[in-house]
Amino acid sequence: MSEYRPTRRGILKAVGGLSAAVAVAGGGVLAGASAAHAVGDGFGLRVVERGEGDPRMWYYRFQTAEIGWKPAVNVLLPDDYHTSGRTYPVLYMLHGGGGDFIEFDRAGIRELTAGKPIIVVMPDGGRTGWYSNPVHSNVGPRNWENFHINQLIPWIDANFRTYAEYDGRAIGGFSMGGFGALKYTAKYYGHFASVSSYSGPASLRRDGGLVVHWANVTSALDLGGGTVYGVPFWDQARVTADNPVERIESYRNKRIFMVAGTSPDPVNLFDRANETQVLAGQREFRGLLDRAGIPYEAHEDTGGHYFRTQFFRDDINGIIDRLRKA
């Protein structure tokens, strides 16, 4: 497997607001669910569904006051997790816009991590949640940032054998999730020692703030007309806090990995608009890192806006090398 391309039809359907699909997305995963395990509630989360029948991929759905529906997470365990007794580092992988917690399983994450001594956690982030607490919602709470940082991470550390520390965690993501990974890494400096952004925007304000406008327009579909950053006037402090290019010093002493496409599909306007901004923003970000003397690894690849699994194969080894060993 060399790449994962979400279909244009699937993206357009998701952007059309079919968020109800998330509520049933885990049905197939539950088919092999086993009896109760030690994994339980806590940190404001109540487990309402679980699937622990597969030896590696475990699934949970939660009730939480931070989200107005029941978000889910896939937890991919190392091959020897049940027999080794070892403690493992964790990689959090954030899906793209229109995706869900199963996105990376569809992309072949099990094969890509086979034999690797790392836990991979893949949570829901809302179809267009932008890994943020929105300025305004008309459909109840959609506080994805609170859910991930204040609830899910401590829940994972409490229920699995993880290194609950800076050198025990990495984060990555695709597209909207690549932005979320960069954002969380800077905003929560002591949480993640490595960040990987696959076609993730790194600059919110460039070109008149096109990425902020895009975040507001798309998030309005999930928020019943509410927005992540506010309209007609942005919450400027929030934009600054979330904007990777305005948080350069927060990436010091971290491993940084980035990928962007250089030749988006000239016919597909969605692909062209997204990857054009991604590439320009990542180049701006890299220039600022260079000026600050902060090392990184960056790749530019032909093609447009899709998750490049061929780069993930090398990235996962770099992540494991950076983190505390199992």
Automatic annotation (TrEMBL):
Gene3D superfamilies: alpha/beta hydrolase. It is an enzyme of class 2 (transferase). Its EC number is 2.3.1.122, 2.3.1.20. SUPFAM superfamilies: alpha/beta-Hydrolases. It catalyses: 2 alpha,alpha'-trehalose 6-mycolate = alpha,alpha'-trehalose 6,6'-bismycolate + alpha,alpha-trehalose; an acyl-CoA + a 1,2-diacyl-sn-glycerol = a triacyl-sn-glycerol + CoA. The keyword Transmembrane does not apply. Keywords: Acyltransferase, Transferase. Belongs to the mycobacterial A85 antigen family. PANTHER family: DIACYLGLYCEROL ACYLTRANSFERASE_MYCOLYLTRANSFERASE AG85A, ENTEROCHELIN ESTERASE-RELATED. This is Acyl-CoA:diacylglycerol acyltransferase. The lineage of its organism: Bacteria, Bacillati, Actinomycetota, Actinomycetes, Kitasatosporales.
